[in-house]
Amino acid sequence: MHEVMHSNRWKSISTRRLSTAGFSFLFAYILSFQFEGQVLYSLLNMQEIDTSGYIMAAIIAHFAGLSTCGFFVKSQTAAKNMMMSGMILCLVATIPFFFTPSTLWMGSLIIGGFTNGCAVAAWGYFLRAFTPKNECIKTCADVLIYSNIIMIVVNVVAMNRSPLVGLVLSMLCLVIGAVFIWVLPAESTYEQKILNNNVRGSIRNPMILLCIFVFIITINSGLMYQVINPAFEHLTGFVSWYWAVPYIIALAIMRNLPTKVRRSIILYLGMAMIVGAFISFMMLGRNAFDYFIVDTLMLGACGIFDLFWWSILGEMLDYTDNSAMLFGIGLSSNVLGVLCGGFIGLFVTSIGLPDAEVTVIALTMVCITLVMLPPLNNQLVLLLKNHAYLAVYGNMSQSQQTDIIRHIKTLDPLTVREQEVLQLILSGKSNREIAELLFISESTVKTHARNIFSKYDVGSRAELISTLLKNQVHSKL
């Protein structure tokens, strides 16, 4: 028995690492070439081609792939096939860039952008399948950290040595990523949660609010690409390796924060860093030290926010049957924000808008997200119970838990069995887990759960947990 458990545990760790490695190499290719990548910029500049049209076309195609993948990828097997075929198509679409510029360059960028967008969205199935409960933030941090480290290596070569060698390295990333994905199993390693319709339905409002928040805050990233980065392009050597370093450091810090630390507070710090970055850009010069300050603030904030919404989307995957659709649409709001910010940046650059007015635009975006953050936090806390409410409940003593439940008013008294089921619901157990612990059928658990919801006059687990926390707060006043 012990050997079987050890084997299963090793298999779980192994599949998680394979999934993380495969996606990291795919994403490194996207970051270094397809999506505002320095390899692409270097190739276009080498040929003295205006970069804006190509860059925007690639981003739009990537957005289209992210937002539509879920309509035709509806299973983990289909997701694996999509990732494999997407990486192969991207590999083929990269070949024209070894030759003189032609219409193939634009067509290849559009095809590659769409297919790698689909591949990123499809990875949502693997994120859900191979990530243990409550460790989504670590998996998301790992893929973002590893992909950016690989990207730095490719960027340094492309910007300081040869764009074509950088292009070869980015293609090598695709090949290595495809190998890792190819050896992944087509079935889940971790048992997925069984969700009732009420819980599934509760995802809509938080998801809409999250997408709006992500879209608005990442408009500043688009401004960064089109306004801040070009201002420091003369610092080629320093920019090539330092650009993503603050981003990686921020991710590492966020990944390893103790669970008791309220990450929502750190989001306010991230907003302050964005404000500081644009004010510094307005007031400072354009030397290496000035770039160090501006980039540290801006990319550090990007690391904070990217891990926030990547991990939130990862945890939301437990509330949907179509992981590619939820993950793809969530990330497409990020890309849409970058795209809109890019268009704004191109416009303000073309009319010669002063840096002070660009800063005002960035501060306006931050002010809007500041207003949105409290209601967004409330919606997410209600939905992702293991993120907050049940963590609070789980840290209470048994007597405190019992006292809280006793003081919540019900329309009718709970039976002994319903009290047992309630305790397990509030401990984050799924219907299947409760059935196994109480030696009853899963349908019986569902019946008890419906009775409990009815007696507390709530429609879902999220509402029940909200009632619990409110009762806890009132009892302390």
Structural description of this entry:
The protein is mainly α and about 475 residues long. The chain folds into 3 domains: about 1-190, MFS general substrate transporter like domains (Growth Hormone, Chain: A); about 200-385, Growth Hormone, Chain: A; about 390-475, Winged helix-like DNA-binding domain superfamily/Winged helix DNA-binding domain (Arc Repressor Mutant, subunit A, Orthogonal Bundle). About 80% of the residues lie in helices and about 0% in strands. The protein contains 22 helices and no strands. It has helices at about 1-35, 40-45, 50-70, 75-95, 105-130, 135-160, 165-180, 195-200, 205-215, 220-230, 235-240, 245-255, 265-285, 290-315, 325-350, 355-385, 390-395, 400-405, 415-425, 430-440, 440-455, 460-475. Helix 6 runs antiparallel to helix 11. The radius of gyration is 24 Å and the shape is globular. The model is unreliable at about 1-10, about 190-200, about 385-390 and about 475 (pLDDT under 50).
